[in-house]
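Milestone 3.1: sequence recovery, worked example.
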């Protein structure tokens, strides 16, 4: 049974990034995407599985990501 303390409201907006654990199944990730799209059909958001870290420009360049 789900208690009221376990329920959280999401208000997804364009540009949101949803980060879920690396071991999230494809089915669970798709269920989240479907739920977000049901709430906001034309949303532009990103779902990432695993850790997310912010890199500075030097670190991105070292990883082979270059600005054009």
């Amino acid at each position: 049974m789900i208690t009221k303390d376990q329920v959280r409201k999401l208000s997804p907006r364009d540009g949101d990034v949803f980060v879920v654990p690396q071991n999230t199944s494809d089915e669970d990730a798709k269920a989240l995407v479907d739920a977000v799209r049901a709430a906001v059909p034309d949303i532009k958001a990103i779902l990432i599985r695993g850790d997310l870290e912010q890199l500075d420009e030097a670190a991105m360049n070292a990883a082979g990501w270059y600005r054009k």
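The mean pLDDT is 89. The chain is about 30% helix and 10% strand.
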